Amino acid sequence: xxxxxxxxxxxxxxxxxxxxxxSGFAMDVYVPSFPSMVQDLHIPISSVRLTMTIFLISYGVSxxxxxxxxxxxxxxxxxxxxxxxxxxxxIVIVLTKSIEVIFVMRAVQGVVISIxxxxxxxxxxxxxxxxxxxxxxxxxxxVWSSAPVIAPFLGxxxxxxxxxxxxxxxxxxxxxxxxxxxxxxxxxxxxxxKAFHLSSVADTYKKMIGTxxxxxxxxxxxxxxxxxxIFGMSAPFLxxxxxxxxxxxxxxxxxSSGVALLLGGMLSKYLIARNFMAKLTIAxxxxxAFAVAMFITAGMFNSIFPIMFxxxxxxxxxxxxxxxxxxYCLTRFPENAGISGGITSGGGxxxxxxxxxxxxxxxxxxxxRTFAISYMILIVLIGVMLLFLRRYLNKPxxxxxxxxxx
Length: 406
Prior knowledge:
It is a single chain. α1 runs antiparallel to α6, α4 (45-73) packs parallel to α6 (99-127) and α11 runs antiparallel to α16. This protein has one domain: Growth Hormone, Chain: A. By secondary structure, it is mainly α. It is 82% helix and 0% strand. The longest helix has 31 residues, at 212-242.
């Protein structure tokens, strides 16, 4: 088996950054096609939303287990086979007219994308150390955020020029190109395989989930990203059915949201040395102020533009909070990079899938006011979690705990 060495470490890192956005593309590229899928497949709105929720649940749950498997059996081969499976599932979606088949394929895609993501995130923990490791892990979510910027924008044009199936053709081609590059240039990064013992793996999971600052982070990440998913589930119907714009307009709206998320992540990277708790608290407070203003001013407008102003502001702050806590959790247990990365991302997506689908299904989001209500619910819940976090961080720690952390 080929390994990543000093000779190919640079190109392997570049390829990892190129493949990281694949999860975002798998989630977001077909968002502008939601109304078209409803018409073409003769399904209710809830069913097309469920294709995203199934992916999120499968993606999240899988990462809880994939991390320990990759720590025991390596990253490279698992990633290669997952790319192959992802290509096949996209071809099946293109060829079918059954929503039930699409549900199954989206569930499989969640599993294989989780394997790809855990494998590539772990590369930066396996292959780099010190400040370089922190730099790359902080850059991870910024690069990942490029997908919400590009994917719906591209998907809007694919839908406008072709049809909704073109989005899945694109995903298959993207994965095929990355498969060829991985075969040619990359390799295994795990130098020492850890024997897979269920009891020791269970103990590791228990230790991580039982660490309050890590566990609170998973919930904060999930609640934060729920804002983006709720927007993705609801915006196409609001923009195309209520305001009667085309799928291209949905793509531009998602582009604005994605740029805001990306810039928020970049700002958090710039302020990486600032006080951890202070950054999170201030951002949450400002988020709350914007959400309240969005609710209060709802009766003054009947246009998509004021809605997008508030969405951009809220998603900018969401990207800021997400990147701060994602970096913190990802580096919290460097001795178990695969497992910690899997729990961080997987647990966050489970929280996201539950709250985003529950809110989108229970609130008929068809106006600025209803969007504001959904955001306020999430912001309040994030604030509660940050209060718990502050209490834990300010609590005096036993001497033996301090010695272990040192």
